[in-house]
Amino acid sequence: MTTTPGTPPGTQARLALVTCAELPDLDPDDAPLRPALEARGIATDVVVWDDPTVDWGTYPHVLIRSTWDYTHRPAQFADWTRRVERSSVLLNPSPVVTWNIDKTYLRDLESAGVPTVPTIWLDPARNFNSRAIHTRFPAFGDFVVKPTVSAGSRDTGRYRADETPQRSQAIMHARNLLGVGRWVMIQRYLRQVDTVGETALVFVEGEYSHAVHKGALLSGPYKEGSDEGILYRDEKMSPADPSDAELELARKVVAELPGILGLDGPLLYARVDLIPDDEGDPVLLELELAEPSLFFAHAPGSVERFADAVAARVRG
Description:
Layout lengths: L14 E5 L13 H6 L5 E5 L12 E4 L9 H12 L3 E3 L2 H7 L4 H7 L7 E4 L7 H5 L7 E6 L9 E4 L3 H16 L4 E5 L9 E7 L2 E8 L22 E3 L4 H18 L7 E8 L5 E7 L13 H14 L1
Parallel strand pairs: 1-2, 1-3, 3-4
Antiparallel strand pairs: 5-8, 6-7, 6-8, 9-10, 9-12, 10-11, 12-13
Helix pairs in contact: 2-3
């Protein structure tokens, strides 16, 4: 177990802040959360999620943060969330996390009337050959190939539909993912992402807290091994004031969650990632309910708001 300095001597930790072995002291953006919680009387430990020596029963509450290596072992991670909930309150709950770690959740939101990026889904059980994959690519413009379980744009590539070599690369990319049993998403690349970018809106206890602007990440085809040894691709971010349309859509997404997931109240945290479609209207790219960066450094007062919400949950 990794216990970093900060827990007062003789005080039993009431909250585990969960990370991965590569970030044993949390992601730097989360670092201000510990003193903010301790200022509110909440003692904390930083704990690695797959550390076999951890006794999760010693923590009444467990808060998932930077567990970003789970994408290589999603089934193990989902099982870990269920084990934790046998003895502790997991923030957010295990069924929510399990639903959210696979981007097929977008189909549930689309069915609920949320506008999403149009997506073709490839099931590895279908044994698609190269021609079948090829016919599912767009006929023009750029498109994206990525697995449904991924974080930080890992294992993701952007391709030009009108260039035969890139279509061939995209086929190989999809086949390699399908070949190891991973579901694949094919999405048309919405061109305004390059000029307008992406807006990530953070919600705490169902209420809008703050937003950041994220620049475009994908510039070309996926290169085998390019993500080896990294947790996520670096992003260029800045504070954002979301438009009325973005706020309206993000609130709709959050409002749909109780009905979809059978919740009896708001989630502690949610991040809604939006991009503009070709007409400039926002559409949902991703909904992050498991382990999202919350970008405290880009929003003054945001860590205090989040710490208040966490403290209220821990105190019951």
